[in-house]
Amino acid sequence: MNSDDELAERLRDGDEKALRTAYERHGAAVLYLAQRLLGNRADAEDVTQVTFVAAWTGRDGFDPQRGTMLGWLLGIARRKAVDRLRSAARDTRVTESVRAQLAPPDGLETPERVVDRLVVADELGRLPEEQRRTLELAFFDDLTHHQIATVTGLPLGTVKSHIRRGMANLRRRWEVDGAASGSRSAGPTRAL
Amino acid sequence: MRHLDPDRLVLLALSDEPRDPGESEHLAGCADCRHELDAFRGVAGLGSEAQDLRDLPPPPEHVWRAIEAGIVSPVRARTRRRRPRWVTTAVIAAAAAVVAVAGTVVVERVVDRSAAEQVTARATLKPLATVPADAGGSVRVLADGKMSIDVRNLPLTTGFHEVWLIDPDDLSRMVALGSLTDRPDAVLPVPPGTDLNRYRLVDISDEPHDGDAAHSGRSLLRGTLTS
User: Most A CBs within 10 Å: which of B46, B73, B166, B224, as the mutation test of the A interface?
Assistant: First the structure.
């Protein structure tokens, strides 16, 4: 079983093993997002639990046509984490500090940015091997196309073609699953 | 005015491609192409931050167990009426066995301490979300096939507390071990042949006196056996 479609179908049929598969594939990303947003491990684990239970309860609402399972789960997790920040603030009646938490100070990432990073990282991992390797050398090692060709032994034209296709794949996925995807209604591209 | 080729924009976004003067001039005057270039730069920025995310540690098992606990009741409620008759018989048999075992516990503990000390698997029981946090317990499976259960601070019930072994991979599959008495500790026999690798989720439930031998769906404590 490989595709989100198949997993979604099994999930909708009430197969708990499908939820386990989703947890194995995406639990780490959900936990990472929650920890980035909440800042502590215990709350992050709670939100991860609540997210997967909510995914189970609301499994009929997942539509593979509209995005991937990771995007769907991260969307739930983001809402749960923000809810938790808000209710924590209600409890202590310090709405000001919440506003500060929801709009992180300089140097901290917004929830949207963390979601976008996770989605792009996931797509990078799904690219065909040579495409992925080529992009990693460009992204992580900051190599020029010529250097990549030398390192990999691939012809320069092939390197450029891998990078073009890989970038197009990452962008498409970002537009489908990124944090702004829910609110974007016009056109296939997004403003930054 | 001809727009820049999308493939060319991708290469420019990765910034090691020198722009020719025509391209720079076009970009200066064309909002669409600038927008496209910015989008690809955004992708490149996110991509270069992906390195830390490649090797995230696997999500913890205890969180998965909490998820299982959170989703179990509706599944159970759906399946409870389809419970085969033999389970009822097994529960009655188990209950009878409790009575028999209860009389021998003290003797066993004193006389056969070495056998009792041989623990083949154990579990820590944690309260579910609806249960007071100070409730809990521990379970030891002994070499002679009996299960020793210690619980504390279980919520009071008008019914009784029952011990189950559940297959976490198929939550409708479970084995009833018997009920707990007022004592904080109990020893229940595990039916011979029970696969504890499969039925590894120990569950203490609150059961009403309704004559229905199926799980009530109201779990209080849970824990997973590990050897």
Answer: B46
